[in-house]
Design brief:
This protein has 2 domains: 155 residues, no CATH class; 80 residues, no CATH class. The chain is 59% helix and 9% strand. The longest helix has 29 residues.
Length: 247
């Protein structure tokens, strides 16, 4: 399952460095097989309906057209749709705790998912992912051709990290809430960085947490107007106001 899984350090746009566990061919192959099975179930179901419709005069051609549409969707839309809706995961990746992210560790975007899935046809060549597997074996981040084109990597989400919630401790006090700016706008990348920090906070010492927060806090405070005695608290308060957790 963990064949060739490894780790890599990535730097967020805010210059905060985190380590991710990269998914190797073994784990990704299992996720792909799960997705392939789900797609096969849908295609076989539609095929059964088409066969039943074929006995009705004038309806058979419509059924065949429906089958071709479903076949196209299962092959070319399935991955893009689920990775966009589930934040870089398909049902198979979700079961195997895998996620597609950008090379800098930030969340993927629709265009990233679209490119990596469209280029999957190249990874298949000359037969059963030969090019894709070769690319993964020779790339230090275990990327297939689709990942290289899309600028993505596939990471393993540690189960403890997945279960952890982005908690603000201690909760925002009334005094802090009143002192906060009326509105704090954070980009998706900024929200992702702060959420990751809050999830991992319990496993960090106070000094280490403040050291990490200092890399991002001063710029965030200057831009948003959020102030606090520590940079860690600046991140927490800015996040709380941005997502509505300050009440």
């Amino acid at each position: 399952m963990d064949l060739l899984d490894t780790t890599a350090a990535v730097m967020t746009p805010e210059r905060v460095r985190f380590r991710y566990r990269l998914a190797g061919p073994g784990r990704r192959a299992v996720a792909w097989l799960i997705d392939a099975l789900l797609r096969l179930i849908v295609v076989v179901g539609v095929m059964t309906v088409v066969v039943l419709l074929s006995i009705i005069p004038g309806v058979g051609a419509v059924g065949q057209g429906l089958f071709l549409v479903v076949l196209f969707i299962s092959e070319w839309v399935y991955g893009v749709f689920f990775e966009t809706v589930l934040g870089g995961r398909t049902p198979g990746k979700l079961l195997l705790s895998l996620r597609v992210v950008r090379e800098d560790g930030s969340p993927g975007r629709f265009t990233d998912y679209l490119l990596r899935n469209l280029v999957r046809a190249v990874d298949y060549l000359p037969g059963f992912f030969a090019i894709g597997l070769t690319s993964m074996l020779f790339d230090r981040r275990l990327r297939r051709v689709g990942d290289l084109v899309g600028g993505t990597v596939v990471v393993v989400e540690e189960r403890d990290s997945v279960r952890d919630r982005a908690e603000i401790q201690p909760p925002v006090s009334e005094e802090e809430r009143v002192a906060l700016p009326a509105r704090v706008d954070l980009s998706r990348e900024e929200l992702s960085v702060i959420e990751l920090f809050l999830r991992r906070r319990k496993r960090l010492s106070d000094d280490r947490a403040e050291e990490l927060a200092w890399l991002f806090g001063p710029a965030l405070s200057e831009r948003t107007g959020v102030t606090a005695p520590t940079w860690e608290r600046v991140l927490a308060l800015a996040y709380a106001r941005a997502v509505g957790k300050d009440r």
